[in-house]
Each structure stands twice: as C-alpha cells, then as structure tokens.
Amino acid sequence: MTTSTPSPADDQSTATEPVIFAAPDITDDDLVAVTEVLRSGWITTGSECLALEAELAGYLDIPHVVAMSSCTAALETAVAYLDLPAGSTIGVPTWTFVSSALCAVHHGLKPVLLDVDPDTLNLAPDALARAIDEGLDAVIGVHFAGVALAPEVHTVCADAGIPFIEDAAHALGTRDHRGRVAGQGTAGACFSFYATKNLTSGEGGALTTDDDDLAAFARSFRLHGLSRDAWARYRPDGEAAYDVLAPGIKGNLPDVLAALARSQFQRFEQMQALRRTLVQRYRANLADIEGLRFVPGELDEGSADHLMVVLLPEGTHRPRVVERMRDLGVSTSVHFQPLHRFHWFQQHAQVGPGGTPVAESVMFQALSLPLHTNLTVGDVDRASAALLEALGRS
Hints:
Number of strands: 13
Shape: globular
Number of domains: 2
CATH superfamily of the largest domain: Type I PLP-dependent aspartate aminotransferase-like (Major domain)
CATH architecture of the largest domain: 3-Layer(aba) Sandwich
Mean pLDDT: 94
Strand content: 5-15%
Strand order of the largest sheet: 1-9-8-5-4-2-3-12
C-alpha cells in the first residue's frame, strides 16, 4: 500500500479510522527506488549504500558515515572499537531500550544503570558524575525521543577521560551545542532506520564519526572483519583478494534497503516539519490538563520529534487509559520499561550510586501518543480527545 506525506492541513481521517501509533510513510517514489535496485542485478551492499553514506555525511556535516544493518550493530561496533577488558563497566541510562546495554554485554562488559533527568528522561549528568567518581570505564548515552543529551554529559565524560558512545536511534536531525548530532568528539553516534523511525529503510542504521580510525574499523567490523567487501571484490575493476583483520559481525546494509532510505531522505526535512506541526498541535490540545506533563516540559527546538511522550497525572491507572483509548480507536505505546526492572539486568547489571529514583517515580506514568507522518492534525485532535476522555476530562 502506498502512502504520501500529508500536508498538515490535509485531514482525510474519519471517526471510524483507527489512529495507529506508528506506521511507515512509503510513497510511490520509494517503491520505484527499491524496484530499480531489485532489477539492477546487485541488491546487497554496493553503490546505493555508498551514496546513502555520502548524502548523510553531507547532511550531518561529519566526515564518516558507515551504514549498518541496525543501530544495534552500530552500537556493538562502537563498543568493540573501545577494546575494553572483559568485566569493564559501562554506564547506561536505565530509561532506554534493551539494546543500549546488551550491545556492551555481548562484549563482556558490565552495565551500570543510571538515573535520568526528570524533564527529558535523558541520562542525568549528576547521576553520571557520581558513577564516574566510583569508577566507570565508558558511557553510552541515549538521546531519548529525539532530544539531545545535556552538554554537561559530554563535559563530565571528557573531564574524566572516558569514552562516550552516543545512542542516537531517536535522533536523526537532532541538534545540540555541536550542530546536528553526529558523533562529533565522541566514540561515534549510532542511528536507527528501523520501521518506526523518522527515516526508515525497514531495518538498518549507521555509525557516524569524525574519527578516521573508528570509521576504518567499522567498515571492516561490519562485514566479519574483512579487509574488502563484496562490492570492492566483484565489480569489474575489483580485486578478489581479501584478509581478515579482526573478528567482526555481519552488520552491513544491503543496497535494496539503502535505496529506500535514500528515497525517504529526499523528503526528510518535509517529514520533520510535519512532525513538528503535529507535536505543537498535541501540546496545544493537552496543555490545560491538570497534572499532565510533557517530555520534555517545554518544546525543544533542536529535537527530532521522534516520540510524543506525556507523563499522566499522578494516581492515574495507565492500563485503563490505554484500554479506553484503544476502544476509541487510538493506539499508544510505552517508552520504556526501565532496564533495572528486567529480571536479567537485576541479576547481571548493577545500579549506579544514588539509585534510580526519577525513573522509578515516572515509570508507570509515561505514555507515548501516536506520532508519524501519515497522521494529520485531525488524527492528533482525535488522539487528544481520546486521552481526555480516558482521563475522565472530556
């Protein structure tokens, strides 16, 4: 089924159509781009992947973009590059998806789960500083919902001389004190092009960096540690010989997926503008609900607007709200269950000094509302009305 990015004023929704939480925005141009690759005779990593890397490098103003099969693969690559001894500790915000920590676990590192800022739910600089004082070997920070980490996180890591990896799965287009988030001065930024992300290739991601050595390592590591990929070996002027530099993973991005990302990227700014319009509409619609808070509290001008997260009024029974909204045709989600609440992490990770009081205080209040570029302002109005009714405030 083909769709197109609607104008903010283009409201073709009806009261009977469900308001879906997340849906990929796929156009006829996207289908053409993918079909051309399928018919080209080369569908795995090749010229489309190289072109995507170049286009993203220009947009992000960063020297190196290494396309990967997922953000998780990019994170594992960045962690592998650090080459930390088994058992080393790595700080991770407890408010994140499991892959932010498991990428380190796969390399024998021990996650230290840290509390978050109550306004943004990003890694709290003071929690990070306390953990560093007690001894951390590295940090993975997450730009939650598209809002950049506080500059103090960068400063704390730099002052301590420990490497800092950016989980930018939500953050393509996010701006901070450095410009667009792209791994400037860190151990790389890791992006996701998963089906629900602002730009999608179905599955996919990228590692971006200004570190020449990290980029060279990533290009080899993403394909088993080989010195030359198949595109370099099989093209007419290629050389068949290759070597294994170090054990790597299977983490390359095929051209058939890169083509979808490239096609999407042609209208990325348009899609981002629509997301901002929808977020502003939500905030206007819900501003007067007593006890309800937005994440972040005030609209962040540099945000990529990946998620529309609210904190329900204290005492609200979230499952009943979710059920009532579903009955009204509006689907929602929760981002996230804190890592320290999972049984595996309770057994194999440790919680940082000071605990996780902020994450604990909001974990049953957080609710993510529908936000994607197939929505119209009318859909946002319906979702807002459904939330109002579910809260008993219609």
